[in-house]
Amino acid sequence: MFKNKHIFFSVLIISILVVTVFSSGSAAPLLEKKADFKIINKSDEIVLIHLTGAVNYDIEVLEEETKKVEVEKGEYTLEYTSCGDDYDDTIDLNDDFTMTIYACGVVPTKMRVKSHLPQKISLKMNGPDDYDFDIKLGQTKVKLFSGWYEYSYDACGTTFSGEIRVTKNGKTELLMHSCEWFDEPSRIYGKPNPVKFRVANHASFPVDMYLIGPYTYYLKIYPGMNQYIVVAGSYNYGYYLDNNLYSGRINVLRNGSVLLVIRPEHIFSIE
Predict the structure, then answer these.
(1) Backbone torsions φ then ψ of 17, nearest 5 degrees
(2) Is 212 within a domain?
(3) The whole model's pTM is what?
(4) What CATH number does residue 97 fall under?
(5) Which residues contact 219 (CB under 8 A, 6 or more apart)?
(6) What is the SS3 assignment for the chain?
(7) Residue 83 domain-assigned?
(8) Domain count, the chain
(9) What Cα–Cα distance (Å) separates residue 212 from each residue in 192, 248, 251?
(10) Could you give the CA distance from residue 152 to residue 160 in angstroms, rounded to a whole number?
């Protein structure tokens, strides 16, 4: 009698252990076998990419297109042609990977930024690539790609913006004046000085903008690059776009270098 009970309880315990083991095994997560391969083509030509590995892929990326492809994880040989040059390399796609193809003629270089401002400044640059540099008092050297950029930074209670060409020789320089430089009486109380004020509208429709400062202006900003003649000085501006009011403060310099850029929100979400 007791012997049979002992056998029964032994069988019961073994059964519980077996069920527990199989239940734990079924709950283990499956290993992800795919990786995301993202290609950003900033050139003005179609690029065909060949991936050779455990699985072979041929990926066509249109000009100025961003494409994301799901591939089997592993190491691959990468081959493509861009700007008349052939490229080949080995890439590790065991994890997600982003590859950027730059416009023809764009090369790595550097630029000097001279700041007369005591506080650290965040300099944003948008062009062949996008950058956000921390600029300290004095001279700062930054590494970037050559080409045309739109830049902006906030200082002295206003937004400074413009367009700059970063040359391949690394001799490009951007100067940030001190707030005292702008507050000099000759710049505040001098005679009105009509200057060029440029606005780039990246939307496909006109945008109405107001400028309130030394003078008040109501401007219609058409798609593309627009140029107006205004009196130099500090202005409050505002415009409606994508059902939102965008406003800020901008200093229109006497050298006519100021550029204000209007970008619809959807431009940033193409990826």
Answers:
(1) -65, -40
(2) yes
(3) 0.54
(4) 2.60.40.10
(5) 199, 208, 209, 210, 211, 226, 228
(6) CHHHHHHHHHHHHHHHHHHHHHHHHHHCCCCCCEEEEEEEECCCCCEEEEEECCCCEEEEECCCCEEEEEEECCEEEEEEEECCEEEEEEEECCCCEEEEECCCCCCEEEEEEEECCCCCEEEEEECCCEEEEEECCEEEEEEEECEEEEEEEEECCEEEEEEEEECCCCCCEEEECCHHHHCCHHHHCCCCCEEEEEEEECCCCCEEEEEECCCEEEEEECCEEEEEEEECEEEEEEEEECCEEEEEEEEECCCCCEEEEECCHHHHHCC
(7) yes
(8) 2
(9) 15, 11, 11
(10) 5
115-171, pLDDT tens digit by residue? 999 999 999 998 888 999 999 999 999 999 998 888 888 888 777 877 788 988 888
pLDDT of residue 186: 58
DSSP β-bridge partners for residue 123: 133
- Percent of the chain scored above 70 by pLDDT? 82
Q: Report d(CA 114, CA 174) in Å as an integer.
A: 6
Is the residue at 14 inside a domain? no
Show the domain range for 59: 34-101
Please give the pLDDT value at position 267: 42
The per-residue pLDDT for range 238-268, each reduced to its tens digit, is 998 888 888 888 888 877 778 889 888 644 3
Greatest mean pLDDT among 14-28, 29-43, 122-136, 222-236 lies in: 122-136
- Checking if the pLDDT of 34 tops 70, the result is yes
Choosing from 79, 101, 123, the residue where a domain stops is: 101
Structure tokens at 269: 């979400």
How far apart (Å, rounded) are the C-alpha atoms in residues 46 and 60?
Answer: 7
